[in-house]
Fold this sequence. Notes:
Layout: H1 31-42, E1 46-47, H2 52-65, H3 69-72, E2 76-79, E3 82-85, H4 87-95, E4 101-116, E5 121-124, H5 128-138, E6 145-147, H6 151-159, E7 163-165, E8 176-188, E9 194-204, H7 205-210, H8 231-252, H9 254-257, H10 263-270, E10 275-277, E11 282-284, E12 287-288
Parallel strand pairs: 6-7
Antiparallel strand pairs: 1-12, 2-3, 4-5, 4-8, 8-9, 10-11
Helix pairs in contact: 1-2
Amino acid sequence: MKEQKDKDGNRKVSLVKVDNYDLNLDLINDRDRAIDFFTSILKGRKSGVTSPAEAMMVYGRCKELSLPFLSTIDHMAVIGGKVCADIHIKTALALRAGNSLWWEKTKDYEPQYKYTDSVSTWISPHKPIKFLEELIKEDPYAVKLRYAWDPTSWAAVIKEGFIPFGNGISHNTPCDYVTEYTMYRIRKLSDGTIKTLTTKGSFSSLEGHVAQLGYGTPGKDYEGRRDPNGNWGKYEKRMVDVRAFDNAIKVIGADLLMGMPEISEMAEVTGVEYSFDPDTGNASVSRDYREDPTDVEIIPDDEDTPNSSES
């Protein structure tokens, strides 16, 4: 996002004005009309909304955030009792802040390499020669290090009077891949001063494996390992990107999102199946819409309950 400045070189701050849309339903006084409306537009389709009650939850969230319901419904879902949105909607809400909020991708699925000298361990985006050059700038001790790629070279380095370091595997094999977003936001404090807030949000391939994202469930195929045909198996780089962006925006833009979780994250927590579009980064769930306006079991009052002793 390009930074805008005034004639004196100071950063200009502007907000995006959002007009309310015309769709107005009275959920309190005309509930039947609202249910008929939700049923008419959602009947016969699969989406993340499965009942009139859930449609009302999404509609209410849209009203609170000034989002157009008909354009937004395909990008939202109710999972685990919470209204969720895909990354498209969360990005759109972030852009509402205008040029007071901007970001850059500071790591794009960047490979990470692990090195050790049997005492210390380092994680670096650089391969051995570049890693050692950077380490020497920070720690004079590093001038004694020499890269060793196997047991034979490790012994040779020691024999030469240096300290061997390596990773025990090919130096071309990363141990992880990391994506990171750095976000900035200008805020006016109570004393009138302007401050630029900064936050970093990241996610990595290793974090996904540790959390067993995309792994098979017990008793089914791919138990204990990642399903190569699942979302994480096919689109890991894009999935990591979405998580990194979401981790950043939900911190620095909490007032814009109001706690609304991202669909794929919530679906994985609750075990709900979802599809993922690698081109847009959007996740969606596909379920049948039920016309029954209530999912609550009606329990008769005590006075209406037959007395077993009298029967």
